[in-house]
Amino acid sequence: MTGIRALERTDLPQVGALFELVMRSGEQRRNPHVEDYLARVVLDDPWADPEIPSLVHEDADGRIVGFIAASTRRMTLDGRPLRMAVSSNLVAHPDARSRGVGVLLNRKLLAGPQDLTVADRANDDSRALWTGLGGQELVGSSLSWWRILRAGATAGALAGRRRPGLARGVRLAGAPLDRVAARLSRGGPPPPPRPAGTTELLTPEVLVEQVEQAKRLRLRPDYDVTWVSWAFAELGRLTDRGRLTARLVRGPGGRALGWFLYLLPADGIAEVLQVVALGDPAPVLDHLVRTAHDEGAAAVQGRLEPVTAGLVGAPGVLVRRGARALVAADDPALLGLLGSTASSFSVLDGEWLVAHGARQ
After folding, report:
1. CA-wise closest residue to 351 among 108, 121, 65
2. CA 45 to CA 72: how far, in whole Å?
3. Is 166 helix (H, G, I), strand (E, B) or coil?
């Protein structure tokens, strides 16, 4: 058939080849890595919803010339269940772009039965497309924060990401500066203080239990152990993105204060996936930064969200432009909550988990 239809498992070889052409080598050939990745994170996601499928666009010859992934996330608003569609991995064959394949796929996805649609790792082109279709940008969540812990190591990590051949030299040159800064607390941010309270391992079971008890969050994920275990397993596969640290924070009296998750790769820049505070965010953020420091992180970076807004202006914290966070919903009150401290919508709940693997 010609036009848009739901993705089928037998489509994955063509979709993988389309990714290879558009996002990787420039050659249209099969890529088993991409096929396997999309099968796991799109079709085999425990929350995959047949009413909100990923979509393909076929041309008159039956060739797939466009694809958009849709992942369903379960949320609750004041105890009422919601479905959130996560849009990701939009690709269109160069020969089909003039026919507006990307616009058509986005329009079809946005017209689905979900209560809310997000694409929170979008670029400027996607922003223009979404706003033209009635979506909007979460401006705050389109920024990222960086807490610099070791300036020389951070410079080396960033240089290595841009030009891998420079990374070792810059890190070696920066190490003495980090040692001096740690001793004198001059020329760089001081080590973070050791906060009161404790942290402990955050398991899928504990995470589900804590989210269920977070009554102050009007809008929050509706996790179950099956989905969280699946998500943790997928994070464990990302060896190039670093090891997962997931910790529950308790105050001096033993009361749970919140939790955090981040990945710490070899270059030392910890990537925060989720921070939730059950009250004052400060002690949770203090434990996050101190834990990352003690694990050897050069810096900690995350998306700017209401729970992390208190970091802005703090010593050693920089704010930079990040990926565009785009949202669409018919309910304006729902959209308003996304930028409120009464909600929890983290990187873990959005596009990140399903967006990066197909492009590696």
Report:
1. 121
2. 9
3. helix
> Which tokens hold the place of 168?
């070792």
pLDDT tens string 121-162? 988 888 988 989 999 999 989 999 999 999 988 888 888 777
User: Do residues 57 and 3 lie in contact, with contact meaning Cβ atoms separated by under 8 Å?
Assistant: yes
Token pair recorded at residue 277: 């505070």
The answer to whether residue 170 scores a pLDDT higher than 60 is no
**β strands within the chain, DSSP E:** 3-6, 55-58, 64-77, 80-92, 116-122, 136-137, 143-148, 198-201, 219-221, 243-250, 256-264, 269-277, 299-303, 317-321, 324-328
User: Does the structural domain 144-322 have CATH classification 3.40.630.30?
Assistant: yes
Q: Considering Cα of 208, then 214, then 215, then 221, what sign does the dihedral take?
A: negative
SS (H, E, C) 195-237: CCCEEEECCHHHHHHHHHHCCCCCEEECCCHHHHHHHHHHHHH
Cα separation of the two ends of the chain: 31
Closest alpha carbon to 57 in 129, 118, 107, 114 = 107
Contact 324, 283 (CB under 8 A): no
Q: Which of 305, 294, 301 is nearest to 199 (CA)?
A: 294
Q: 292-321 pLDDT, tens per residue?
A: 999 999 999 999 999 999 999 988 899 999
What is the rounded CA–CA span in Å between residue 160 and residue 171?
9
Question: Could you tell me where in the chain the CATH 3.40.630.30 domains are found?
Answer: 3-139, 144-322
CA-CA distance, 177 to 188, in Å (whole number)? 9
> In terms of CATH architecture, what is 3-139?
3-Layer(aba) Sandwich (3.40)
Helix axes 225-237, 204-213, angle to 10 degrees: 130
pLDDT at 120 > cutoff 70: yes
Look at residue 185 in the predicted model and tell me its pLDDT. 45
The tokens of 233 are what? 């397993």
